[in-house]
Amino acid sequence: METTALFSYSYSKPPLTQTLTFPHYRPANPSTISLSRTKLHSRTRPLTIQCTLTRDQKEEIVGKVKTLLEGCCFMAVIDYTGFTVKNFQDLRKSLPEKSKLFVAKNRLVYKAIEPTSFAPLRPCMKGMNAYLFVYSEEIPEAIKPYRKFQEESKVENDFLGAVFEGKFYAPEDFKQLETMPTREELYAKVLGALQSPAIGLVTTLQAPARDVLMVLKAYVKKLEDESGGGGQ
């Protein structure tokens, strides 16, 4: 009889799956078997050893995703099929401080995001995916590093989808995300409208909710700064 065992190492590393078969061997508990990682590690060849997770390990991963969701403004799914270890290393190095890349089983990630505004990602949570968590509203700046990585590494893997402010963006909608005005541009637009005739304010209030909110935040900050400066 043949027994198939699956092994694993750090879940923050790319889970490049490989099945190992041992003839005439039946372990009492496959999840306790360990295997030297150094002999299997490769910078150029996709490779991951993955084991059947225990309940505690699954709960730990779900908890980790929930932690990553705290303060998250933007979450995207990236297809990493064919990525090498070096690809992941290069991608992680390219990300700004307010972005984090995480790899885990799709169903465990969904279990964590199901009760949140990021649940609309479910349709694209199939296959081999990496998850990008962004803790800034500067979405264009958060996407740029991956675009640069695609160009330099010559990989065609693209975003499968993203959620921002509860709205799902399919791959063909990313142009909207990548051309969003920066915080400074929104501040200038709002403050300019507030100081202009009424028609300018009406035009601003007819803008998307995000733009209006950013404008109001900018105006409140301006008043706070002026108030603080006057008290010195």
UniProtKB/TrEMBL annotation:
GO molecular function: rRNA binding
InterPro entries, per the entry: Ribosomal_uL10 (IPR001790), Ribosomal_uL10-like_sf (IPR043141), Ribosomal_uL10_bac (IPR022973), Ribosomal_uL10_bac_type (IPR047865)
Record's GO cellular component terms: chloroplast; ribonucleoprotein complex; ribosome
Subcellular locations according to the entry: Plastid, Chloroplast
Keywords, ordered alphabetically: Chloroplast, Plastid, Ribonucleoprotein, Ribosomal protein, RNA-binding, rRNA-binding, Transit peptide
Keyword Chloroplast annotated: yes
Predominant location: plastid
One Pfam family here: Ribosomal_L10
Gene3D superfamilies: 3.30.70.1730, 6.10.250.290
Matching PANTHER family: 39S RIBOSOMAL PROTEIN L10, MITOCHONDRIAL
HAMAP family in the cross-refs: Ribosomal_uL10
Protein family membership: Belongs to the universal ribosomal protein uL10 family.
NCBIfam families associated with the record: PRK00099.1-1
Protein name per its UniProtKB record: Large ribosomal subunit protein uL10c
